Structure formats: structure tokens, C-alpha cells
Amino acid sequence: MTRMRMAGTAAAALLASVMWTATALAAPACQNKGSFEQWLDGFKAEAAAQGIPRNIIADALTEMTFDPGVIRRDRGQGVFQQSFLQFSGRMVSNNRLVVGAKMIKKHEALFARIEKQFGVPSYVIVAFWGLESDFGSNNGKFNVIRSIATLAYDCRRADFFRPQLMDALRIIQRGDLRVDEMIGDWAGELGPLQITASDYFRTAVDYDGDGKRNAVTSVPDTLASAANLLKSFGWRAGEPWLQEVRVPDQMPWEQADLAVQHPRSQWVKWGVRSAHGAALPSDDFPASLVLPMGRLGPAFLAYNNFKAFLGWNAAIVYSTTAAYNATRLAGAPPVSTGNGTVEVPTTQQVQELQRLLIQHRLLEGDADGRMGSATRAAVRQAQLKVKLPADAYPTQELIERLRGRTN
Question: Which residue pairs, CB below 8 angstroms and at least 24 apart, start in 57-65?
Fold first, then answer.
């Protein structure tokens, strides 16, 4: 999966508290066509044509109404302002680590069975379990069918949510959940692991033997379904996912990119070393260098299994935090603060930088203030152009140099 999944209920609550309110930025350049009721009638006809029984359609969608509150939440998503250290510092709390360790011990036999079948260790599943819902204590209270239907009608992300709604009906048709059990996050995610309806239909498993794939209230089904989902994203049994490292003062920073892999031996030649314990092996094992806060911040080698974290959520701060959380549960020490003081850019700084990048024909689109992958790639190109270390992290110095070139 390459799309960005919405963060789970527990993480989303924090995200909401640390985002700028930027409704204007989030507003789509599109208009809904026709009434919700007309749209729903068309969807019901399509569902019937795709083989969804009419009684299922009636049970799930009769008297269905549009939820403006869901649209306000979707429109009100602002620009994420926290750095990796700020976000991981809040999310990978001591309480979550303590409770996570207790959950691993409590379900030790279940996790052993899951790892044997799917190859995913307990630390990784529990890391998501804690971040997404605080171990099932906050799964969300929204009518998932209504939420997905609302978002499927809305023009902003209809292409994503319309198939989600169809798969939500298929979950009911298959007998996994009743309509009244489809309760979860406002964006339509289900259960303690906050799984989207399409992922649920595709990868949920019956692990308690009752004949239903219930990843909402059954702990065995929930944990095994998460493992199967991660496996579908390419998880490889027995391989690492993330390792904190130290980086030198000078190296080819443009190589620090998730799209670039080198053998560990090459990273060793460039001066990258292990942050903890034994020396970094100088072998052929492939890895990418991840610098979530640039060359002065924390540094990690990301292995092939890190792609499964990106499949779960493509936002680099979230995926790196989840992977780091899993390493902590597995016994790794707390992360270093890096080699220096890293300034987190404001929304206004990012927008100005994006406007400059657009002027220099390094970026297409609008200056929306979001530090996504396209903006990071453009930042790297700009850094190379003005002869700054190309670590893809925005700085005031880069803005000033681009200003000078523009003038």
C-alpha cells in the first residue's frame, strides 16, 4: 500500500491537538454533484450489481444520512507540526512501553503462534496496538458505515472511500460483523488496530476458531489480522526493521533516502556506525538511511521490513515512530537527540519554501504547507542546487539562498 492511512484513534487525538487549523488548505478544489440521497441510490444499485444481497444493502444503508461532522473532521486536518522527536516522545510513552510489555507477556502463547504462522514478532504488532487505540481502550465510537458513506459521497477522496464502502458491505455479507458492530474511527477504520474496511476484508483472519473474522472484539482475530496485514505489505520473517545509527559530519547526504538502498558495508565506509552495542556489520545486507529531522537529528537504518510500516501508514513521522516503538519494546534504548539543535519549520516557512521551489521549477502544485514526499524530494534537489548538504530537511538557510537566487 502506498497511500497514507489515517492515524488510529489514539494517535489521531494527539494529531488533532498538535496540528494547525488549516481548513482552507484542506478544502478540495471540487464540488459534490447531486444530493447525498441520489448518490446513495446509485451506490445501492451498484452494490446489488456486484452481488451484495439486497437484505444486506437494506440493513446497512436504509435511512442512512450524511454526517457533516465527519466532513468537518476531514476538512479540518491541518499541517502536522511536530518533529519526529516531539511526536515519538509523546507517543512512545513509558506507560505504553510498560503496558505493551505486559500485553506481550499476557498473550505470549498467542504471539508465538502468530509469529510462527505469519513471521511478525509480538513487538511490532504491540507497537501498533498501543499507538492506534491504547491497546483497545479507544477504538472509536462512530458508525463506520455512515462515516465511509459520507466520505465516499464527498468529492475530495471519493475514489478511495467508494471501494471501502463496498468492502464494508462485503464484511457484513461474509458474516464477520453485524451492522451494529461496525463501530470505529471517524475515517472508517475498525477495531483496536484501526484497520480500513478494504484491508479488513482482504486480510482479516479467524484465529479463535468461531468461524468469524472479528478483528473488533476478538483479541486473537485482531492480533492475527494485524500480522497478516503486515505480511501483505511484504514483511519478511526473522529480519530487522529499524536500527538507530550515528552519522558522520560529512557524507553524501543525497543517499539518505528511502528510495535508495546500499549494503551495510557501504554505509560503514561512509562513516555510519551503530548507535548502541556492537559495531555495524560490514556486510551485504541492504538498508536505507532515514533522517526524519535531517543530518543533525536522529538517524536510522531502515531495512526491507520498514516497508511494512510505510504500508500501514506512509507518513514518515508516524511510520518511523511505530518502528521505533517496536524496537523499544524489543529492548532498544531511547533514541538519541542527534548531533545538534534542529529547528522545526513552521507552516509559513514551509509554504514560503514551497513557493520558492515552484518558482525554481523544482516542485509542482500548490504551496500547501505540507512536508510530503514530493516536497522533500524538491528540497533535496534545491539543496544540491545551492550547494547545501542534501538531507531533504527544510531550513531557513535554504529559504534564504533560494530567495537570493530568485531576486
Answer: 57/169, 59/172, 59/179, 60/145, 60/168, 60/169, 60/172, 60/179, 60/182, 61/145, 61/149, 64/40, 64/145, 64/146, 64/149, 65/36, 65/146
